[in-house]
Write a structure and sequence with these properties.
The complex is a heterodimer of chains A (about 270) and B (about 575). Chain A has about 270 residues and is of the alpha/beta class. Helices cover about 35% and strands about 25% of the residues of chain A. Chain B has about 575 residues and is mainly α. Chain B has a domain at about 330-510: MetI-like (MetI-like fold, Orthogonal Bundle). Classes of the chains: A alpha/beta (about 270), B mainly alpha (about 575).
Chain lengths: ~270, ~575
């Protein structure tokens, strides 16, 4: 793997801040590496992600943060050339284990993408999609209930209650993103992954989503990839800084932003590169 | 000929000179510093060359297109005017001839009788009366009318000969006779007369006759032709020189030659696309006009054509043959077309769609790389090959199966065998288009579904397929319009009987097959039988046009949503 000339070639190990939160650990990774064909996209990432908190992954483009996110719900399985090694445990259960069905795993680990991607169905059907395929509702009333509570949790209910059967694509970008979050919540996940959830949205919609993320923290472990350092500072409790496929530094957000241990982290958060 | 060749060569030289002058002039206008010019020096050359060559070549092209017919009209118009006394004499003699007038009366009467007989026949056919009787009566009447028509023609010819004989054997006399002959000739004879005269006058091929009158017409053509040739060449050269001089004065350092040349290029490209569109329009209009002739020949009973249940356009070898008017109820053809198309789509839609889903969602890139072209090769097999596959393999096989199952009347040429094979033919069409549409569904939708914990087939059924549906419908409609228009397989494998049936094991016939049957071989080109082919063609065209419009609209809406 090629290294940028700005940095020492001796490849220093990840710097960890002492954990200040008292929360239980939800996700733990150990020496996770990902290859796309011959290209090493992620190298030797080990970290522990707390439950009921927001963990932000930051770093310049191509640093591997999205790849890391996609390891956690095995979305990399859908790419033929991807090879994942190392250990990922959710509640001490191995994610990459042979006996783990990725389909069941993905019901536990929801994901929200960069661009809102509602299905070409009605708002109701979008949210009902997960419960339907996983058989979570026995009756129509139960399904209605799941849809309603999910939309309420995603803060969208008030806006769409009177037009549940309009197409999901008829909503605005910010509403679509909240619809997608509602869709993810509907299957009752434990972890929610968000891959730059606000990068396609305007500032007002972004603020709305950030508020929502903060509310969701009550019940879920959230892991969010973002390009905006301000966003990471605003919404997250933990921050992981990735660079060139490596985890450079990991710790409580306050510590990372006020007292970075690595020069590269310092340079990145002060806007010197990236 | 030489004059035109000379004009073209001179124009080419002038155009080249114009290019050079344009360049030189532009560089001179900028005091030798090409960078001061608005455009590159070559553009000034092109600009001048265009002004020199374009108007002149357009003029020559117009002359080439319309020159000959203009010359013919003028020259023969001259002769016809000189023949005016003969024409007056001829008409006066016919008007005075009591027997000729009596024949004319009789014709009118017979035609009225024939019309009522025909109406009676159609009524009898509808109400189940004795249509045969009227058909026979109609045949007799037709024969009578033709006999009288021949007699009238003979009488007219005799009068014409005696009138023409009175013209003196001088040059003006012969010219008047030529004009008279031309005036009397029906349109196709007129064309022959003109082509013979041109052949003699300009050595354009061999003349079929060489009479005094044709020689006179040839001599009358020559001065007009010379006049037009030389004036066309002269005007073209004058235009070229004029254009050169005019454009030369416009060249300045700041003159936007590049924009002008770009404009001409744009115009030229527009013309080429206009040619494609105009050709289509021309075909449509010729279909339309021939169809109108057909409808006129069946007395505008369009509803009988569109909704009639009986199709038997009798083969009229002689114009006076009994029953030559035939029955033109096209419903059996529409039904046959619909039946075969339905069978074909029942084969092609599921197989093609599932193949497309497999190729785009399940197959590995390596497999896809050779499987898709392999499937598309099916589309490259000539339809006639499918035709004999249907006729020699599928047809007999289906017949045997049907007979084994106890259906004794099975025939080799059936709607089923044609439909099945046509379906196979359309599979690559459906699969290739649907595959493109499915691939155009954004990966984000699939990821979204997988991230919800959906399996591959759930994702395909609930997300990918609904998202691609409009495009798939478009693909299917395009496939239907191909099936409707397909000819060769049905000609060979479906039989020719115009049966009105929904039984796929019987032989049926389609619109396209009937068009082939009506127009191949020796045919009279103005009998209702042949003209009905154009009406069928028009119906077919309108059907496929509507299907294509719907399909394109649907596909377009799909594109708007995802791009």
């Amino acid at each position: 793997m090629s290294m940028s000339l700005d940095f020492p070639v001796d490849n220093p190990p990840t710097r960890y801040h002492p954990l200040t939160t008292q929360l239980p650990i939800k996700v733990a990774t150990d020496a996770v590496s990902v290859r796309y064909g011959d290209k090493l996209a992620l190298e030797d990432v080990s970290l522990e992600i707390p439950d009921r908190a927001v963990t932000a992954c930051i770093g310049p483009s191509g640093c591997g943060k999205s790849t890391f996110l996609r390891c956690l719900n095995r979305m990399n399985d859908t790419i033929d050339t991807a090879r994942v090694s190392g250990s990922i445990r959710i509640d001490s259960e191995e994610v990459n284990g042979r006996d783990v069905d990725p389909v069941v795993l993905r019901a536990r680990v929801g994901m929200v993408f960069q661009k809102p991607n509602p299905f070409p169905k009605s708002i109701y059907e979008n949210v009902a999609y997960g419960p339907r395929i996983h058989g979570l509702a026995e009756t129509k009333a139960e399904l209605d209930h799941i849809v309603e509570t999910s939309l309420i949790k995603a803060g969208l209910w008030a806006e769409v209650a009177d037009r549940l059967h309009h197409p999901g694509t008829s909503l605005s970008g910010g509403q679509q993103q909240r619809l997608v979050i509602a869709r993810a919540i509907a299957v009752n996940p434990e972890v929610i992954l968000m891959d730059e959830p606000c990068s396609a949205l305007d500032p007002i919609a972004t603020a709305r989503i950030e508020e929502l993320i903060d509310e969701l923290r009550e019940n879920y472990s959230l892991i969010i990839v973002t390009h905006s350092m301000a966003q990471a500072a605003r919404v997250s409790q933990m921050t992981a800084f990735f660079h060139l496929g490596k985890l450079v530094e990991y710790g409580p957000t306050e510590e990372i932003f006020t007292n970075p241990l690595d020069q590269r982290t310092q340079d990145y958060i002060t806007g010197r590169f990236g | 000929m030489q004059s035109s060749l000379f004009a073209v060569l001179a124009l080419l030289v002038l155009t080249a000179v114009g290019f050079l002058i344009g360049r030189r002039r532009a560089v001179a206008a900028a005091n030798g510093r090409a960078s001061w010019l608005h455009s590159l020096p070559n553009y000034y050359g092109y600009y001048l060359a265009l002004w020199t060559g374009l108007p002149a070549f357009i003029l020559l092209a117009l002359y080439g297109l319309f020159g000959a017919s203009l010359v013919n009209t003028l020259a023969l118009g001259e002769l016809e005017r000189e023949a005016a006394p003969l024409i007056r004499e001829y008409e006066a003699q016919l008007a005075r001839d009591p027997e000729y007038q009596a024949l004319a009366e009789e014709t009118l009467q017979i035609e009225a009788e024939a019309l009522s007989a025909r109406n009676e026949m159609f009524r009898a056919e509808r109400e189940g009366g004795d249509a045969e009787r009227y058909l026979r009566a109609l045949g007799t009447l037709t024969a009578q009318r033709n006999e009288i028509a021949a007699e009238r023609q003979a009488r007219r010819d005799r009068v014409a000969v005696s009138v023409a004989a009175r013209a003196p054997h001088t040059v003006p006399g012969v010219r008047a006779r030529a004009g008279f002959e031309y005036w009397r000739a029906p349109s196709e004879r007129r064309e022959l007369f003109i082509s013979d005269a041109r052949a003699l006058a300009f050595n354009e091929g061999l003349a079929s006759r060489n009479t005094e009158e044709i020689r006179a017409a040839a001599l009358a053509l020559r001065p007009w032709e010379d006049l037009f040739r030389w004036s066309a060449a002269g005007v073209a050269l004058a235009l070229a020189v004029g254009g050169l001089a005019f454009a030369r004065t416009r060249i300045r350092a700041g003159f936007r030659a590049r924009d002008r040349v770009e404009g001409v290029i744009g115009l030229a490209l527009m013309m080429t696309s206009a040619i494609a569109i105009l050709t289509t329009l021309g075909i449509v209009f010729s279909l339309l006009f021939e169809s109108i002739r057909f409808f006129a020949s069946i007395d505008w009973r369009i509803h009988e054509f569109l909704f009639g249940l009986h199709w038997s356009p009798q083969i009229a070898i002689r114009a006076d043959q009994v029953g030559q008017s035939g029955a033109f109820g096209a419903v059996p053809l529409f039904a046959g077309t619909a039946l075969i198309t339905l069978i074909a789509m029942l084969v092609a839609a599921p197989i093609g769609l599932m193949a497309a889903i497999y190729l785009s969602e399940y197959a590995s890139p390596r497999l896809r790389a050779w499987a898709k072209p392999a499937l598309e090769i099916l589309a490259g097999v000539p339809t006639v090959v499918y035709g004999f596959f249907a006729l020699l393999t599928v047809g007999p096989f289906l017949r045997q199966v049907a007979m084994m199952l106890g259906y004794e009347d099975a025939v080799t040429q059936s709607a089923l065998s044609a439909g099945l094979v046509m379906g196979v033919m359309i599979i690559p069409f459906v699969s290739s288009l649907s595959d493109d549409v499915i691939n155009a569904v954004p990966q984000a939708l699939r990821d979204g579904s997988y991230a919800m914990g959906a399996t591959k087939s759930e994702t395909v059924r609930h997300v990918v397929f609904p998202a691609a549906l409009p495009g798939i419908v478009g693909a299917l409609l395009l496939a239907v319009s191909r099936a409707v228009g397909e000819t060769m397989i049905v000609v060979m494998a479906a039989g020719q009987g115009a049966n009105l049936t929904a039984n796929p094991l019987e032989s049926v016939t389609t619109i396209t097959v009937q068009i082939v049957m009506l127009l191949t071989g020796d045919q009279e080109f103005d009998s209702p039988k042949t003209l009905s082919a154009f009406a069928l063609g028009l119906v077919l065209f309108i059907m496929t046009l509507i299907l294509n419009i719907i399909a394109l609209r649907v596909v377009q809406r799909f594109r708007e949503r995802y791009e």
